[in-house]
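Structure first, sequence second, as always.
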């Protein structure tokens, strides 16, 4: 499928919404409604970036105790269902914990195994689920496995990592470029070979073609799932298997830069077809899934880069024996335009296999903050979209406050990806959660200079406490949306049908959500100008992102203010049962 061009469907009429033609309602909708009863179909997941969330012991760095102390906020105040923790394993913390030096212990900066057990216990007592990070592609170079592996060519762990001789004429074995900049190959003087690191040179890639690596890493899963974790988010799941022949990647003469991804520009000079996404990846993921299935009720979320939806759908597994929820980066990388978003969403639903269920995210710790990318008014519109699609929403900490990027001076930066010449820092997205108007925005009692990262400059106005007292705040809107979603079977599990765009001014993304007992219309005005559209029926406003009060009767000609998103409750007698 090609993305839509500037002109659109001739069967529709103009932006005044004279006539809408219902689309959607494909076979996949039946699958959506029947996708089973797993808890994560109904859940809203909250991505917590541990070092930035809440400091429990006053050392300036967020930790597991701080997360435990935040459970009441997350559960009863905000209303989410599951927490994706971020890494907390032993680590030198060059990549916020994605550089693991011991997979079965907690980094002392974040707590202990006992603290983890307490987190599980306290979360479960509140009906909250805990999803942990599983980081199988690479370890830290400080991991004892790598220390052994690099010690000699004959070491039994040599093949736990990817070692190669220099190319015949000397130099690196092939042309693969790292996401953190430069070659993926690092020379090791002691043994006269290169090792592969897809990210920092301090993050050597494990060799998943070595049987012992698989066995050991699958046992890591059992360790944490046995301790009560409710699921895993698999870091760079698409990278586990590479081309066994290590063929060069083709160059990308016109560039392959991804304006949405905060990767080193070096990464964009080639097409990454051999260093990742090898077909064998799916067999490994099925093995991981089989272990996860030993713990009934647990979920697998696969972090996979943006790719065509047909390829994305393969991560569900050929017999639905792969990932439960492949991450939809393609949506995060879609320009904020109604026609483009509609096109991508329809393609997502059309590509989804039988029994599949998607997750959706619009923010992530590796990307520019939503409220910075879209501006505050459209970030509110995005919140409505996030919480009303037929998918499990995944919300980045702080997005519920409309947190924006905060510049971080070089001396305070934590992200080692930024240290290579031309490197890009992701720290501005990851600044501390602002809890209140007190010192350090309530994040920590440490001195300011000891904080993991500086707090946002506007934290006096943008923090949990202040927003709780304002019914028009971001946080109040998120709470309302979360409650509406929880109460609405149409929003949680219903079918989805997209309303078509218009030929002249396609500013509105609108869709219908329908369950046997409930129907909602969602209309999102993605531009900073008022508009009007025709929706399938009249109804009452359940939520609006602007000053419009709930309960107002609207439609079928729906006038939307600039930057307004609404959810409309359709009364029983007006419902469109055929959609
Ligand atoms: C993806 C993670 O989201 C990112 O933060 C990290 O730097 C890389 N994987 C490497 O683990
Ligand atoms: Ca701490």
């Amino acid at each position: 499928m090609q993305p839509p061009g500037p002109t659109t469907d001739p069967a529709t009429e103009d932006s005044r919404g004279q006539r809408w033609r219902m689309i959607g309602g494909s076979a996949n909708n039946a699958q959506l409604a029947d996708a089973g009863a797993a808890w994560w179909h109904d859940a809203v997941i909250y991505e917590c970036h541990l070092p930035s969330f809440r400091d429990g012991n006053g050392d300036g760095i967020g930790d597991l105790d701080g997360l435990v102390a935040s459970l009441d906020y997350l559960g009863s105040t905000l209303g989410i269902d599951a927490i994706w923790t971020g890494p907390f394993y032993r680590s030198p913390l060059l990549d916020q914990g994605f550089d693991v030096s011991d997979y079965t212990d907690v980094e002392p900066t974040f707590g202990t195994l006992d603290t983890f057990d307490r987190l599980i216990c306290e979360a479960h007592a509140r009906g909250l689920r805990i999803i942990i990070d599983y980081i199988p592609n690479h370890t830290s170079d400080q991991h004892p496995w790598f220390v052994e592996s690099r010690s000699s060519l004959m070491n039994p762990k040599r093949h736990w990592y990817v070692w190669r001789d220099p190319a015949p004429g000397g130099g690196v074995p092939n042309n693969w470029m790292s996401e953190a900049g430069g070659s993926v190959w690092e020379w090791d003087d002691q043994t006269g070979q290169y090792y592969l690191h897809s990210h920092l040179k301090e993050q050597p890639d494990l060799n998943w073609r070595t049987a012992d690596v698989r066995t050991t890493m699958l046992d890591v899963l059992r360790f944490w799932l046995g301790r009560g974790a409710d699921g895993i988010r698999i870091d760079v799941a698409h990278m586990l298997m590479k081309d066994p022949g290590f063929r060069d990647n083709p160059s990308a003469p016109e560039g392959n830069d991804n304006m949405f991804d905060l990767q080193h520009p070096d990464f964009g000079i080639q097409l990454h077809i051999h260093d990742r996404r090898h077909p064998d990846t799916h067999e490994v993921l099925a093995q991981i899934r089989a272990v996860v299935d030993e713990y009934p009720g647990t979920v697998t979320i696969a972090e996979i880069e943006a790719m065509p939806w047909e390829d994305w759908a393969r991560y569900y597994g050929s017999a639905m024996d792969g990932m439960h929820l492949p991450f939809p980066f393609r949506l995060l990388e879609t320009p904020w335009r109604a026609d483009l978003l509609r096109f991508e969403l329809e393609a997502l639903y059309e590509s989804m296999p039988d029994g599949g269920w998607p997750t959706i995210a619009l923010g992530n710790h590796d990307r520019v903050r939503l409220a910075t990318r879209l501006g505050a008014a459209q970030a509110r519109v995005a919140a409505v979209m996030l919480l009303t699609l037929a998918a499990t929403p995944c919300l980045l900490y702080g997005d519920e406050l409309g947190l924006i990027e905060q510049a971080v001076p070089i001396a305070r930066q934590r992200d080692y990806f930024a240290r290579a010449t031309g490197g890009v820092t992701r720290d501005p997205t990851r600044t501390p959660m602002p809890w209140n108007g007190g010192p350090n925005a309530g994040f920590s009692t440490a001195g300011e200079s000891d904080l993991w990262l500086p707090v946002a400059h506007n934290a006096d106005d943008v923090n949990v406490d202040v927003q709780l007292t304002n019914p028009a705040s971001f946080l109040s809107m998120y709470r309302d949306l979360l409650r509406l979603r929880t109460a609405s079977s149409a929003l949680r599990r219903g079918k989805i049908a997209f309303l078509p765009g218009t030929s002249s001014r396609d500013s509105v993304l609108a869709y219908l959500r329908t369950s046997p007992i409930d129907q909602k219309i969602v209309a999102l005005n993605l531009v900073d100008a008022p508009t009007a559209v025709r929706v399938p029926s009249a109804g009452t406003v359940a939520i609006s992102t602007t000053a419009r009060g709930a309960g107002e009767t609207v439609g079928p000609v729906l006038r939307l203010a600039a930057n307004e998103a609404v959810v409309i409750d359709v009364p029983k007698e007006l419902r469109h049962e055929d959609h």
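Margin note: Residues 55-57, 59, 61, 63 surround calcium ion (ligand 2) (CB under 6 Å).
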